[in-house]
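Support reply, case 0932

Customer input (verbatim):
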Amino acid sequence: MKTIKVLGPGCLNCRTTELLIEKVANEQNIDVEIIKIDDIEKIMEYDVMSTPAVVIDEKVIIKGRVPSVDEIKNIIGSKDEDCCNDLNDSCCTPTKDKDTSTSCCS
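Our regenerated output:
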């Protein structure tokens, strides 16, 4: 199970981000735990000054905007469970059809 944190004070964009992640996870049948963090001091611990922000495995992946559905699929929809660990960075090799700039590879 992936743990995904959505950082933001509860604005429309923050709620939209949370709902989009939930929708994609349900559609892709991916087991995720979504944790909403709205405490400003805790958000600042992630060095985030603009929200919404998305954190996976304690790494800020997106900040300051609502991610697209395709970005969310790229972030949470990897078939390779070890994609973003130090032992296997094959998902982090850009190809013509794969943009890694918004994934955990950046």
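We compared this against your earlier run and they match. Two observations from our side: Residues 12-27 form the longest helix (16 residues). The domain at 2-80 is CATH 3.40.30.10 (Glutaredoxin). Please reopen the case if you see a mismatch on your end.
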